[in-house]
Design a protein that fits this description.
about 475 residues, mainly alpha, 24 helices
Length: about 475
């Protein structure tokens, strides 16, 4: 049974990684994989549960007298359906509701032209200076917004400014790198950091303090290399862009931008004050924005006010991505409950026994495989341990070296290949950038930046 679960997971994982050659959406694969693993787990419950969670099963049966005379299969199946799956759904839905709230807020700001408050201020015509301005704006944006939205906003701006395809691809590649490095140090900047933060593996302040500098280095190093290829000035400037204000005045766009971005930044503070799960803060901010837009449009006569209201905006969020996260997190949960991840962690501890080497390898793998299941699997392998522990286990306490370095490696490592991150796939789709071109021109700079940032983090942790 356990062998079947492992084989199916790796087959599904491979299908997700080969989404484009197979022409099968990864969401379909993830959903089928997640549900299929739970079916197999339930069918083999009487063999798996007593072996992996024997003591917990005994305690569960003792607390439910109606099960005490039932067959072992019925007892184990009840434990799977009433304990494990309920517990898993509780963890998974926290992440999903957080993402739904964040995506809706970003879409609300975008449809009101809020991002033009920043992009309209990019006025330089110098190619090298423009590269750094775009990288810095992308780096900051991706720490607050999701990487996909940041990449879309910046590349759509880029397409109106740079005519030469080769140069535009260089800028687009740096947008991918800046988006991934920017998301790695923020608790709300990337799905993987959100997962680590929501589960309590890291705290917001510690993550920012320890991972910000390595992330900056990982962006600056490739930026310096690419900037050497850019000389002169661009022909047409940002002032030549078509109107992107969506019929909103500057004051109105500024207000929605401040409310949306300010609300996203407020979520970590909300959690630290109330000690409630982060999704509560995110949905609270969404409620505030919803109330504001309702009052705003009730007092305005605008042609597009129906399209700008939140019930319409929420239809624009990327629901396939939400379902993908649901499927893959449910699949990983089965590996955790069956003890497969714990056995893998034990093997790594005995054979590698170096958290830095493990994470650097995971970062490289994240350029090939999706980093969401990668990080979800690692989180299942290593539980957060008590702060009083010493020795090797101390790396796995809350805000421990392993979790912080995992955030950096999984986020930044995705830049090594164009298919290694959501921002890379978006850039590939929008710009028709091919895999080989990125590999030739940007993979080496990205790798040098990744290793340089990793070196900075290791020096920080050993200081």
């Amino acid at each position: 049974m356990l062998t079947t679960l492992i084989v199916l997971f790796f087959v599904g994982y491979l299908a997700i990684a080969l989404e484009h050659p197979l022409k099968v959406d990864k969401t379909a694969t993830a959903l089928m994989l997640g549900m299929l693993l739970w079916v197999i787990y339930a069918l083999g419950a009487e063999y798996i549960v007593p072996l992996v969670e024997g003591e917990s099963l005994k305690a569960y049966v003792a607390s439910h007298p109606v099960l005490q005379n039932a067959s072992l299969h019925k007892q184990a199946l009840s434990y799977v359906t009433d304990v494990n799956i309920v517990h898993t759904l509780g963890d998974v839905t926290q992440t999903l509701f957080f993402l739904i709230g964040a995506m809706t807020i970003v879409e609300l700001v975008d449809i009101h032209g809020g991002f033009t408050v920043i992009t309209s201020r990019i006025t330089t015509r110098d190619k090298r200076k423009l590269l750094w301005v775009i990288c810095v704006v992308t780096f900051i944006f991706s720490a607050v917004l999701d990487n996909m939205t940041t990449t879309i906003v910046m590349i759509l701006l880029l397409r109106k400014i740079i005519n030469d395809q080769h140069e535009r691809w260089l800028y687009a590649g740096m947008i991918v790198i800046a988006a991934n490095t920017g998301g790695a140090w923020s608790p709300i900047g990337d799905v993987t950091t959100i997962m680590l933060w929501v589960k309590g593996n890291v705290t917001a302040l510690a993550l920012i303090e320890r991972v910000l500098l390595p992330s900056v280095v990982a962006m600056v190093v490739p930026g310096l290399i690419i900037s050497r290829s850019l000389k002169g000035k661009i022909e047409n400037g940002p002032e030549d862009l078509p109107d992107q204000t969506h019929g909103m005045s500057y004051k109105e766009r500024l207000t929605i931008f401040c409310l949306g971005v300010g609300g996203l930044l407020f979520v970590p503070t909300f959690k630290s004050i109330t000690h409630l799960p982060p999704f509560v803060g995110m949905l609270f901010v969404l409620g505030v924005l919803w109330l504001y837009t309702e009052i705003f449009y009730n007092g305005k006569r605008m042609e597009r006010r129906k399209e700008h209201r939140l019930p319409k905006v929420i239809a624009r969020i990327d629901m396939p991505s939400i379902l993908f996260f649901l499927g893959i997190l449910m699949a990983v949960a089965v590996l955790e409950h069956t003890g497969i991840l714990a056995a893998t962690a034990a093997w790594l501890d005995s054979e590698v026994h170096n958290v830095y080497a493990i994470n650097v390898l995971l970062g490289i793998l994240s350029s090939i495989f999706d980093n969401v299941p990668l990080v979800a699997g690692v989180m299942g392998m290593y539980p957060v341990v008590d702060p009083s522990v010493t020795g090797y286990a101390a790396y796995f306490v809350q805000d421990g070296v392993f979790w912080e370095f995992l955030s950096y490696c999984a986020g930044v490592g995705g830049s090594l290949l164009i298919i290694g991150s959501a921002s890379g796939v978006i850039a590939m789709g929008l710009e028709k950038m091919n895999f080989g071109w990125y590999l030739k021109h940007l993979s080496i700079p990205a790798l040098l930046g990744y290793l340089a940032g990793a070196g900075v983090y290791i020096l920080e942790s050993l200081w």
